[in-house]
Amino acid sequence: MSMSSIARTAAVLLATGVAAAAQEPATSAALPSAGPPMSEGQGFTESGGAALYAQVCAACHQAGGEGATGAAAYPALLHNEKLASAGYPVTVLLYGQRGMPPLGRMMSDTQVAEVVNYVRTQFGNRYGDAVAPEDVKAARP
Ligand code: HEC
Q: Where is the signal peptide, in residue numbers (predicted)?
């Protein structure tokens, strides 16, 4: 993992509050001590699957979806047959899974649908049954 992707990963972790317990906050303004560690609601301003992927997911899964190994293993989304079932990535985003933070809780239903539809149709994945925002809403915790 390059230094810049480590920095981006750290930025995402700080943004989600996941690393709050493990890392010193960069500034007290960035991580207010009051409030929940992970805000519910719409923490990401990007719209469109490509922009969301580049801003939120690529830090760990890499720009081409190839994943990475290092301090932790970030699975490849490239040619990933587990994406055949649309419910799987929706669930991973909304509930998290081990090292994968529940980033979908910081996104709108539309944003989750967009980024899921993006990864299911990029990186050699050709799953045409698009997820709708209503599907995301129904799957939320
Ligand atoms: C902080 C790093 C990080 C970020 C950011 C991140 N992921 Fe993950 N992701 C992981 C890790 C680690 C796993 C493996 C979880 C496990 O152990 O099962 C994972 C697993 C997944 C899986 C399941 C893959 C499989 O083969 O089972 C999907 C799908 C996924 N991530 C999609 C996304 C999407 C879409 C985004 C952006 C919205 C994203 N991830 C952002 C770290 C991350």
A: 1-21
Question: Per-residue DSSP letters for 66-107?
Answer: --B-SSS-B---TT-GGGGSTHHHHHHHHH-BTTB--GGGGS
Unique residue bearing structure tokens 């799957």: 139
Segments making up each domain of the chain, as ranges: 39-139
**Residue bearing tokens 């690393």:** 19
Mean pLDDT, the chain, whole residue set: 81
Ligand 1 pocket member 54 (CB < 6 A):
no
CATH class of 39-139: mainly alpha
Cα-to-centroid distance, 14 and ligand 1 (Å) = 16
pLDDT reported for residue 1: 43
For residue 75 and ligand 1, the question of a CB distance below 6 A is answered with yes
27 burial level (CB within 10 Å; 0-12, 13-18, 19+): exposed
Query: What are the structure tokens assigned to 2, written together?
Result: 């390059």
Express each pLDDT in 78-136 by its tens digit: 999 999 999 999 999 999 999 999 999 999 999 999 999 999 999 999 999 999 999 99
